[in-house]
Amino acid sequence: MTKRRNAIAAVIAAAALAITGFATTSASAAGAQVGVILPDAASSARWETSDRTFLNAAFKAAGVTVDIQNANGDVAAFQTIADQMLTAGVKVLIMVNLDSASAKAVQDKAKKQGVPTIDYDRLTLNGSESYYVSFDNVAVGTLQGKGIVSCLAGMHKKTARIVYLNGSPTDNNATLFKQGYDSVLRPLINAKKYTLVDDTSVPGWDNVKGGTIFEQQLSKAGGKLDAVVSANEGLGLAAVAILKKNKLNGKVCVSGQDASVDGLRAILSGDLSNTVYKAVKAEANAAAALAVDLIKGKAAATATAKVNNGTVNVPSVLLVPVGITKANVKVVIADGFQKRADVCKGIEALCKKYGV
Length: 356
What we know:
The protein has helices spanning 2-20, 46-62, 75-88, 100-112, 137-154, 172-190, 207-220, 233-245, 261-269, 280-295, 329-334, 340-344, 348-353; strands at residues 34-38, 66-70, 92-95, 117-120, 131-135, 160-166, 194-201, 227-230, 253-254, 275-277, 305-308, 313-319, 322-324. By secondary structure, the chain is α/β, with parallel strands linked by helices. The strands form three sheets. A seven-stranded mixed beta sheet has the order 2-1-3-4-5-12-11, sandwiched between helices. A four-stranded parallel beta sheet has the order 7-6-8-9, with helices on both faces.
């Protein structure tokens, strides 16, 4: 009976680990030359629908084996996956951190083993990363802020009541996004043209928490808001859901980021005023090309920029983001990032109206 209970417990434990995505090193990991750790599947659809696909394709084209796993928002899982990949003998480790402290611990361990690490999309503060591949994230925030200003001007609003719905306080990107949009909006706030009603960050980019926080912001504003400066589409759409409940959607400017299918549909319907398109395929290709060079012992010629992580200047590849409104949703479709059929399903008239 004891053996049977132990066997059942072992099966249950294995199943639980499998659900979190880090039970054991996969068969492919044993021979993988590159390990990739994605952060989660909840904060943004991009990690599983775009980054995984494009990274797999880039490494396949280069003839390099890769093991891509997702930490599902769990720091312990992140570290376990990294340990498995290092034990399996990966030659390069690419990671999207959940927070700087846990990622630094992984990077330090990799460095001791002679394995270079690449920060992908998010910079690890005070880390020992070898390289960084991302977008100019201050520019991302600047585009978000400019989109909000343009939307308010289009509504002929010379004064406005706004809130900041910021990203996770543990994500350096969220800090950079805010730096960008605040640089655009702060002069208007200081000039008393805009009133910043509330400024709150959302732990872990959690969209459910984001919706709750925004509901509190709307209540604080007495139900009278003109704009929601939201750091990504997950949070922006969470705010839109609350605005819909109060019959305010389309009447309030709401920013986003990621150019997801749902985000683009919301742009066309007017629920979101603006978003930011980051060409994830180009980002994935840049990270893969860098990793392949490292495996082959070549100089990393593409890492021409430098970004300070708080301790050192990290050789970096920085790509250029694009601001998106109704007028240029077609750019994202033309680039192959999203499919027209997915974006336009059920809203064909709007797609035709805006040339999608």
